[in-house]
């Protein structure tokens, strides 16, 4: 499982369909988390990503050091499913997405990550699975972190 975590001062996600644009998730201070699920991922990967996200210390403390987590600051998460994090563009010009999970598996693990974050007291807003979305965010820092549950030591 891969997560791109961006520290933001605000963010919202809109779903685009026909001539309508509807906001489905919105947060103030916190993280936008773009989440990719591979066909190899399990509950263990979901737990790893949720735990790391909840406790990642990338907010400034009183001394200006990146030393506080979402749990410390009361920040929120805007969680967006993004299968393209498993794109393989090493050969040719069109990326392959064969490492991404099928929608049924990805949806289940995506929801699991959201539930695990909520169980830790974190407010979670989400995009809408398998839809065209527009994400508007204001990076704070900027601070962007990449987590990969298959590259843990």
Salient structural properties:
153 residues; alpha/beta; D-tyrosyl-trna(Tyr) Deacylase, Chain: A; two-stranded antiparallel sheet; 3 helices; 8 strands; tRNA binding; hydrolase; Gly-tRNA(Ala) deacylase activity; cytoplasm; DTD-like_sf
Structure description:
This protein has 153 residues and is of the alpha/beta class. The protein has a single domain, classed as D-tyrosyl-tRNA(Tyr) deacylase (D-tyrosyl-trna(Tyr) Deacylase, Chain: A). It is 22% helix and 40% strand. It has three helices and eight strands, in the order βββαββαβαββ. Strands 1, 2, 3, 6, 7 and 8 form a six-stranded mixed β-sheet that branches. Helix 1 crosses helix 3.
Number of helices: 3
The fraction of residues in strands falls at 35-45%
Choose one word for the global shape: globular
**Can you identify the CATH class?**
Alpha Beta
CATH structural fold name: D-tyrosyl-trna(Tyr) Deacylase, Chain: A
What distance lies between the first and last C-alpha atoms, to the nearest angstrom? 15 Å
Give the integer mean of the pLDDT values: 95
* H and E string: EEEHEEHEHEE
List the helices and strands and how they pair.
Elements: E1 2-17, E2 20-27, E3 30-36, H1 43-55, E4 59-60, E5 66-68, H2 70-73, E6 76-81, H3 103-119, E7 124-126, E8 133-148
Parallel strand pairs: 3-6, 6-7
Antiparallel strand pairs: 1-2, 1-3, 1-8, 4-5
Short summary:
By secondary structure, this protein is an alpha/beta fold. Helix content is 22%, strand content 40%.
